[in-house]
């Protein structure tokens, strides 16, 4: 917004209108609620925290499993809806080692390529 074409009285009038609009917006209940939201969010427990009343109401096995998952010692979840990746490349020195072509390249693929050999030679 270019204000250089405004005269000084026009700028003061504009300033008065802007301040009035700011006062009106900060006085509405909706804005007051928005200002309180971050403080309310800080009071909420983290997803892995267990509130005292929840700990008393839940069976001990449920509380214990919640804390183990939060600490990261629970086994990773296995997706049942996604089939395992198809092996596209095999290590000629160790055929049990395969790579789907997705994600980080294994060291044996990097070594193969460093020798100047084409990746197509590793195709399964």
C-alpha termini separation: 62 Å
CA gyration radius, whole angstroms: 31 Å
Please estimate the helix content: 40-55%
What is the H-and-E element order? HHHHEEH
GO molecular function: DNA binding
Organism: Thauera terpenica 58Eu
Domain DNA-binding protein H-NS-like C-terminal: 79-124
Biased composition (Polar residues): 59-70
Characterise this structure.
There is one protein chain. The protein is elongated. It is built from 5 helices and 2 strands. The longest helix has 20 residues, at 8-27. The N and C termini lie far apart (62 Å). The mean pLDDT is 77. A two-stranded antiparallel ribbon has the order 1-2. With 124 residues, the protein is mainly alpha-helical. The chain has helices spanning 8-27, 29-43, 52-57, 60-71, 107-114; strands spanning 89-90, 98-99. It has 3 domains: 1-44; 45-76; 89-122. Helices cover 49% and strands 3% of the residues.
Features:
single chain, 124 residues, mainly alpha, two-stranded antiparallel ribbon, 3% strand
Describe the secondary-structure layout:
Layout: H1 8-27, H2 29-43, H3 52-57, H4 60-71, E1 89-90, E2 98-99, H5 107-114
Antiparallel strand pairs: 1-2
Summary?
The protein is mainly alpha-helical and 124 residues long. Helix content is 49%, strand content 3%.
């Amino acid at each position: 917004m270019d204000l250089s074409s405004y005269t000084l009285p026009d700028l003061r009038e504009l300033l008065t209108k802007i301040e009035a609009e700011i006062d009106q917006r900060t006085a509405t209940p909706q804005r007051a609620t928005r200002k309180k939201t971050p403080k309310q969010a800080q009071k909420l427990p983290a997803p892995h925290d267990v509130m005292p009343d929840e700990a008393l109401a839940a069976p001990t096995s449920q509380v214990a499993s919640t804390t183990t998952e939060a600490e990261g010692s629970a086994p990773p979840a296995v997706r049942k809806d996604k089939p395992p990746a198809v092996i596209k490349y095999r290590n000629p020195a160790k055929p049990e080692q395969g790579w789907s072509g997705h994600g980080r390249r294994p060291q044996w693929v990097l070594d193969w390529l460093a020798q100047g050999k084409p990746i197509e030679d590793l195709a399964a």
